[in-house]
Amino acid sequence: MRNQYSLYFLDIDGTLIKGKDLLPKTKTFIQQLRKEGKQIYYVTNHPVRCHDEHVEYLTKLGLSINKEELITPLDGLKRFFNKIDVPYCVYVAASSMVKQKLRDWDIPVIEGTDRQLDNCYVVLGMSSSLNYGILQEAYECIQKGATVLVLNPDRTCPSNDYKLLDTGLFLKLFEESGDLVEEPIIIGKPSVWMQEVLAEKINVPKHEVVIIGDTIASDIALGNALGIDSVFLTNTDIERNYETKTSTHVMSSIKELVERWC
Ligand SMILES: [Mg+2]
For residue 116, how far is its CA from the centre of ligand 1 (angstroms)? Predict the structure, then answer.
């Protein structure tokens, strides 16, 4: 690898995969990193699958990954709740996996909104099981003063044919209602909780660490907050008005990166 980096944080959607396909040269890139003994962490804002499912999914796509190498918004969420030292409750407007994880961590998850909600948080995350009833109950919690925890701020997610509605757009619904009492808290990249999760993984000088992603607002912002180099990939065109100077490098895709660095 013709660069100084020994630890790589890699975004997944739009960087390594698009929809259900690996992007060109992704396999070559990962194989090269493995061959040279580089450290790899996959950092996703994907709020639907648990770690095991995500690893299985990526392995099926042909990506070499270990469970310990995957970082998701759930890691940030766990960190967030660990720091709360007063009684609270949580309403989940996200996938059933998120709900199950919170229960596994003994976090008080509520069903329905027919009780007094002191220190209530609504966990909001894109999921195909979100429906009107769930969004309405979340809205009721919000009207009672709940704070929204946003698993990922992305408004859309790249996929094969059409982009997917993502969590940031559901947040917009609540913001447009005018009933948000508390400022929403972003949990996924580039939040301070995710910064802490990544910072713990860095065991080499910072100039040897790089983050690679296709979103300025999450991937590149996270790299800048950590004081590490970044590569912004323009291939998914998710950022139409990006400021290239915010990242250390700008390339079109992993394919170009492989051609230049491998
Ligand atoms: Mg991405």
Answer: 39
Mean pLDDT for each consecutive 10-residue tract of the chain (262 residues)? 93 90 95 96 85 88 91 94 92 94 94 80 94 95 94 83 89 96 93 96 98 92 97 75 77 95 91
Cα–Cα distance, 246 to 230 (Å, whole number): 9
Question: How far is residue 149's CA from residue 244's CA, in Å, rounded to a whole number?
Answer: 29
CA distance 233 to 195: 21
**Dist. CA 23–CA 70, nearest whole Å:** 19
> Ligand 1 centre and the CA of 158: distance in Å?
8
How many A from CA of 202 to the centre of ligand 1?
21
Prediction pTM value: 0.89
* Domains in the chain with CATH codes: 7-73+189-261 (3.40.50.1000), 85-186 (3.40.50.1000)
